[in-house]
Fold:
Amino acid sequence: MDIHEILTMCVRYQASDVHILVGNQPTLRLHGNLLPVPESAIVTPESAKQLVTPLLSSEQQEQVTVDRELDFSYSLPSGERFRVNVYYEKGNLAAALRYVPSTIHTIEELGLSPILGELTELKQGLVLVTGPTGHGKSTTLAAMIKRINESRPDHIITIEDPVEFVYTPAKSIISQRELHADTHSWNVALRSVLREDPNVVLIGEMRDYDTIESALTIAETGHLVFATLHTNSAAQTIDRIVGVFPEDQQQQIRQQLSLSLEAVVAQRLIPSIDNRQVAVQEILLASPAVRSLIRDGKTHMLVNTMQTSTDVGMRTLEMALTESYLAKKITLQTARDYALNLDELNRLVAGR
Structure:
């Protein structure tokens, strides 16, 4: 079984990921569960090379040999796309491939909060979608970019590593820039973006001091910025951003963030009753009270503000889990497994 047959099977089953790892059968992640590819052999060091090498150009092969890992996008002859990470594991080639569906679903089709649709109507500010790897952040952002693309004549620029969803221009024009293929670095791309006349900028990941500083600057200068961050909650997101900066700059960053931030959506994909997955989202909106707490460094009080601001669309993760449980989308045990504050979840469930 070659790599194209494995990837075609991934597409057919609508799995989210493929793993090639020596000592294991090629493995699919389907609805959150890892399943060996049927009728496949255990991967050996030699077969790992045979499976992974066809994904790489000769230039990429050299880069992997030198850097020991590489991110890039790959398309099957039939057009289906994958985000690929090739790496070395115990001296052997390995790969993790994320399937990127060609169809970009709408906010409604994904069952996301209507608040996300309202956020796409903003003209400037910073909107963050956070959560662990593999929990649908890119899919959620794609739905929001799709809404903008279909509703107004903007110039949308995405900077990604690598490009995932490919957009077809509708009312907007769209520039999609991929690290290495279209730009040498995040820093160069983000410095250049303000000279490219954008209305909306999508930053694939705010990963360090430079990308976070650039995102804040772009949002401050009258642009709408979407970005992802690997954090577990809205409050942790604020602390993570501020904590990246030296202590003598942190008060200034709190001030900048309090003015430019519009929303944090902390997302989880969790097992549903029908053996699929459902998106559960904690939502923090930048109300005057939230901006004040961010500016004053009182992030520990953000959860309380979300709990008392449901009338404007805010909710904690425990509120979102309770809502999904009461809608019979997930079991109570699943809700408890994913809650950050189990006592709060139990209180909310008991109160309903």
